[in-house]
Amino acid sequence: MEEERGGPRGPFEDLEVIRRDAGMPTTRFASLVGIPERTYRRWQAKARNGHPPKGPWPAPAREVHRATVVKWATRYPAWGHRKVWAMTRHDGHRLSQSTVLRVLAEEGLLLKANYQRERRQLAAARKAAFAAPATGPNMVWQFDFSEYETTAGGTWRVAGVADYWSKYEFGWHWSPTANQFDAIEAVELALAEAEQLLPEGQALIEYLTDPDTGEIVPITLVTDNGGPFRSFRFQAFIASRPELRHVRTRVKRPGQNGVRERAFGSLKYQRLYREQIDDALDLVREAEAFRVEFNNIRPHEHLAWNRPQEVHLGLADPSVPNFPEPKILPTSWRGTKDIVISVATVTRWLHKLGVRRLDHLDVDAQPLRKPARSRPGGRAT
Q: pLDDT tens digits for 309-342?
């Protein structure tokens, strides 16, 4: 009896029947069904020679993690496969990004390549509007306005401040206008929340004071050149707050305020454009829910897949992922005089001493030391 090899046959035969009935050329059909043309033509060649294509092959790695991947992808349908992978890793699963990509493709949950084409591609070497790069929270903030038109409640503007280093989003100020008063209100909200995030009892001005020199190192507030930020009232407000220093970007250079622009883009494309926003109440509710998700749940690739609030509070390093890892117990123990001795060596010494079981060892005896070793001259060391 001839041995049957290979797995179950793939869907090629059914696909080929559909293609022939439709009278469609191979190139166009392969593009429509999402199969590489070279792969499909290889299947055709095998079928003509009497060797049908094999597969599909078992994928145990996908099956083990499929439920968790689908859970996060359906809960946050606007996220790409890399953020879904990060959330799966935070749940303790050890898998690659390509595995998540394949699972989402099989489940029909993968975002298309042209998704969010309107997002601007920021320059690879973005010029910052400050001389020294930020190395901690509350060093550089980025501030700007954005707007959103509801279906029945008119157009509303949002003013928001984001921490450049931790990507933390401070409270947003919503208003039908975007003037100097709204700008001042948004900065005051950010100052109040920044002080709430500090250790209890510490003021923001105290946090910004250099302990060696006693000088205040102000927060650099980066904005564009809009009218509210060039107004006398806003400049007077900045001058009255020793915690702040105002810097405006170059004209027509939104990339210098990129963290702020990118976060507003995420707000619109990942939440507002996917919901039915009828009025200002719906708008504020959905936006605040996204801000909480953005700060506490959503992993950020630029922060090594950590969350902004964890980084802002010093609970995570923005350059080191904090995925849960299995603990590996050491296989060695530290003997006397700081000599590291392996378990196998200790077992061999115990056998030389006549100890076959650990419960026969006298714990009150002298501590175990490394046996003496003789040199070529006969002198022990």
A: 999 999 999 999 888 877 776 665 454 445 555 6
Q: Which residue, 239, 241, 262, is CA-closest to 164?
A: 262
Instruction: Answer for the pair 130, 102: CB distance below 8 angstroms, yes or no.
Output: no
> What are 232-258's pLDDT values in tens digits?
999 999 999 999 999 998 877 777 888
Question: Three-state secondary structure along 30-97?
Answer: HHHHCCCHHHHHHHHHHHHCCCCCCCCCCCHHHHHHHHHHHHHHHHCCCCCHHHHHHHHHHCCCCCCH
Whole-angstrom distance, CA of residue 282 vs CA of residue 277: 6
- Give the position of tokens 């650099």: 220
SS3 262: helix
Least confident residue range of 13-17, 266-270, 344-348: 344-348
Give the pairing type, strands 340-342 and 219-223. Answer: unpaired
Q: Is 223 helix (H, G, I), strand (E, B) or coil?
A: strand
pLDDT over 70 at 44, yes or no? yes
The residues near 72 (Cβ < 8 Å, ≥ 6 apart) are: 79, 84, 87, 88
pLDDT digits (tens, 9 = 90+) for 142-186: 999 999 999 888 999 999 999 999 999 999 999 999 999 999 999
- The full set of domain ranges for the chain reads 60-107, 140-312, 329-381
Q: Which of the following CATH numbers is that of domain 140-312: 3.30.420.10, 3.40.50.620, 3.40.50.150, 3.40.1160.10?
A: 3.30.420.10
* Beta-bridge partners for 162: 142, 169
Reported as type and span, the H/E element at residue 183 is helix 180-196
Cβ neighbours, 10 Å, residue 251: 7
